[in-house]
Each structure stands twice: as C-alpha cells, then as structure tokens.
Amino acid sequence: xxxxxxxxSTRCNIKCAHCVAPKDTLDFQKIELARAKExxxxxxxxxxxxxxxxxGEPFIYYNDLLExxxxxxxxxxxxxxxxxxxxxxxxxxSKQMLGPLKQCGLSQLRLSFSRWHQQNVPHQNILxxxxxxxxxxxxxxxxxxxxxxxxxxxYEQFLRDNKLKFFPEPVIYAGRADSFAxxxxxxxxxxxxxxxxxxxxxxxxxxxxxxxGSHFNNTKFFHxxxxxxxxxxxxxxxxxxxxxxxxxxxxxxTAIASFAGIKARDIVTFRKCELCKILFDTPExxxxxxxxxxxLQRWAR
Length: 301
Ligand code: SF4
Ligand code: SF4
What we know:
This protein is α/β, with parallel strands linked by helices. It folds into two domains: 2-183, Aldolase class I (TIM Barrel, Alpha-Beta Barrel), CATH 3.20.20.70; 243-297, no CATH class. Helices cover 38% and strands 17% of the residues. The protein is built from twelve helices and nine strands. It has helices spanning 33-45, 62-74, 91-104, 123-136, 153-161, 232-241, 243-250, 253-259, 264-267, 272-280, 283-292, 294-297, and strands spanning 2-9, 48-55, 78-83, 108-113, 139-146, 166-170, 199-200, 205-207, 223-226. A nine-stranded mixed sheet has the order 6-5-4-3-2-1-7-8-9, covered by helices on one side. α2 (62-74) links the parallel β2 (48-55) and β3 (78-83). The structure holds iron/sulfur cluster (2 copies). One iron/sulfur cluster is lined by residues 194, 196, 209, 211-213, 248, 253, 272-273, 276.
C-alpha cells in the first residue's frame, strides 16, 4: 500500500507555538493547482492508494481542494484532509463546507486539537466540524496533540465530555517547538517501529518520513529527492528499498539504538523521534549504521 502526505501549501491562517513550521516567516510555498493534479495522476499510476492533504491549512484553498479530492476519487485514491477547523464557526457553516467535499468523494477529516491550536480556534469549531462530518457521512477523528502534561487534562476531558473520537499525538520537538523545554520521560523498552508514510513538500521534495523526518538537516537522511528530477515511482521505490528505512520499519528504532551502542538505561529516556534523530542525523553514527549492512539486519531476536 502506497500512502502519501501531500503538502499542498505551507500557508496557515494561524500560528501555533508548537508548529513544526521552520521559522517565523511570512513567506509560504504552494504547488500550482495544475501541477498538483499532474502529480496526483502520476501517484495514481505509481499505485498510490491514499493521500492525506496536509502541511499548512488545506482549507485555505477550499476550491482547489474540491478539485484535488474529486480527482483522487476518480482514480480510486482514499483521501484525508488535516485541518484546524477554522472554517467551522457554526454547525451550519460546517455542513455547507463539508457537503461539497463529500460529493467530491472525501473519505476522512483529521481535526487537529491542542492547547496551542485552541488559542486561535474556539473549541466549538472542533465540535461543529466533527458533527458536520457525522451529518455529511464523512469519517473523522480528532488528533489531540499533547506533551502529556496535566495542563492538557482539560482538553482531553472536553473531547471525552463531547464523545468525540480522538487519538493523542505527541508534540514533535521540531520547528517552533524545538525550543520547548522537554520533560524527562521514562518509556517502556518498546520496539518503536515506524510505518513511515512519505511526505511531499510544496517545493516538490519528497521525504521518507512525514513527521519529524524533514527536519533532519545535518544528514538529510529522510530526503528522497525532488519530483523535478525523479518520478513519483522512483522516489517511492527508493523509500521502500532503502535498507536502513526497512530496519526502522521492521526492527524498530530501539533495536537499532541498542546495536549502535546506546545503553538500554539511556534508550528508555528518549522519545522515539529524538532517538531517531540521534541515530540518523549524526553523520558519524549514520555512516557506521550504513556500513554495518547485514550485521545490523541480523540484530534481531
Ligand atoms: S500546527 Fe497546523 S494549524 Fe497550527 S500553525 Fe502549524 S499548520 Fe497551522
Ligand atoms: S521515529 Fe523517525 S521515522 Fe519514525 S516518525 Fe519519528 S522521525 Fe519519522
């Protein structure tokens, strides 16, 4: 199954303190609508079966979204849109926006919710968007971004009180959140495997990991290439056949960290993406892992 996070534009109408957007800049990037359609056709030929529209706030380009989602439907591609729900101040407005998207074939909406998002978007919008989905027959879930602090209890309670379907999503300490103070954690010795859906950025660069991967700037470990120079199929094939990526998918980050010499006692103090960054965004460690080849792949129970 080939799924892609499609970054149509980095433009957003709000500015969350935890956003992975790199820096405070007024500039934004966007793919031309015609080019985005060509890319979706290429993705269809390459066997992509799911596209998640993300990056900045996709609903800013609502009319473009209708066309892109409609094209995906024509090509039997499952579609999701990630949104902050700014467009749903009332249930009526929410239904007005979601009806046409449903007609175009939208499969799912992922509603971002957190103490940072909700400084700019009222809680009520999340309810309106979720109820609008229910009425329009669109699947939805709330992505509850949290640093697992007590401060977030009231946000989780809001979701529970309103019986919304939600999944906690750890803050990614990159971009604006890079300066956040990290709380000490102590995890289980879990595998930390990743499915690693690729991410297409508006500058047409593709990355093997859609989360923190595009912020590994020392080694550019997850950068697959650019669609100006390669086809969708070439970049996806690269993602699927890279031996280290496949170790992340099959062995998991924890086993790789152990192989690399990190003490078990230290491993359990890192968040998954932080451990990943230590391993793959440090040139010396990355070279050693690349050189290890089969020896690393045999480091399995
Ligand atoms: S986290 Fe999402 S909603 Fe918030 S500024 Fe970033 S792109 Fe916009
Ligand atoms: S652990 Fe690594 S591969 Fe997985 S989401 Fe985090 S940065 Fe991406």
